[in-house]
């Protein structure tokens, strides 16, 4: 189980949590921050791909 040294708040969004991991006062964990950024990139890419497919189907 992965335990980050930076606790996520109840209202944190994933991007601000990633920024705090990389550059925050809790320490700098560039590896974890880059892994989370890669997951964010893949999520956005997948959502964009689904949206493109749905838009083409409506034309």
UniProtKB/TrEMBL annotation:
Q: How does it sit in the membrane?
A: Multi-pass membrane protein
Q: Where in the cell is it found?
A: Cell membrane
Keyword set, alphabetical order: Cell membrane, Membrane, Transmembrane, Transmembrane helix, Transport
Keyword flag Transmembrane helix: yes
Q: Which GO terms describe its molecular function?
A: ABC-type maltose transporter activity
**Entry's Gene Ontology BP terms:** maltodextrin transmembrane transport
Q: Please give the chief subcellular localization of this protein.
A: membrane
Q: Which residues cross the membrane?
A: 30-52
Q: Which InterPro entries match?
A: MetI-like_sf (IPR035906)
Q: What cellular component terms from Gene Ontology apply here?
A: maltose transport complex
Q: Which PANTHER family match?
A: MALTOSE/MALTODEXTRIN TRANSPORT SYSTEM PERMEASE PROTEIN MALF (PTHR47314), MALTOSE_MALTODEXTRIN TRANSPORT SYSTEM PERMEASE PROTEIN MALF (PTHR47314:SF1)
| Protein name listed in UniProt | ABC transmembrane type-1 domain-containing protein
Originating organism:
Capitella teleta (Polychaete worm)
- Cite the source lineage: Eukaryota, Metazoa, Spiralia, Lophotrochozoa, Annelida
């Amino acid at each position: 189980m992965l335990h980050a040294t930076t606790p996520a708040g109840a209202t944190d969004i994933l991007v601000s949590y990633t920024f705090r991991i990389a550059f925050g006062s809790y320490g700098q964990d560039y590896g974890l921050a880059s892994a989370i950024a890669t997951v964010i990139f893949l999520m956005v890419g997948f959502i964009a791909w689904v949206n493109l497919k749905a838009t083409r189907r409506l034309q």
